[in-house]
Write a structure and sequence with these properties.
rod-shaped; mainly alpha
């Protein structure tokens, strides 16, 4: 398997499991391995996936906190 594919797979897994670490990894790939078009393309996608999942997790945490604090105030 090509090393570029392995780096991309690791990046996607990090972006899905740990969005902030995935974003940092994608930025490192983008700037360190920017000469390879394949890695540069996937580094952009890794950054986008990490940002989207970070936003989704932030919204879910806010909804959870609002619902929990509202429930406890009603008691």
């Amino acid at each position: 398997m090509d090393s570029g594919k392995i780096l991309a797979i690791i990046g996607y897994l990090l972006a899905i499991c740990f969005p902030l670490i995935g974003i940092i990894y994608g930025l490192i790939l983008y700037f360190a391995k920017g000469d390879d078009a394949y890695i540069k393309k996937h580094a952009k996608y890794i950054i986008i996936v990490g940002l989207v999942l970070l936003c989704i997790s932030f919204v879910l945490m806010m909804v959870y906190n609002i619902s929990v604090f509202t429930f406890y105030q009603l008691k």
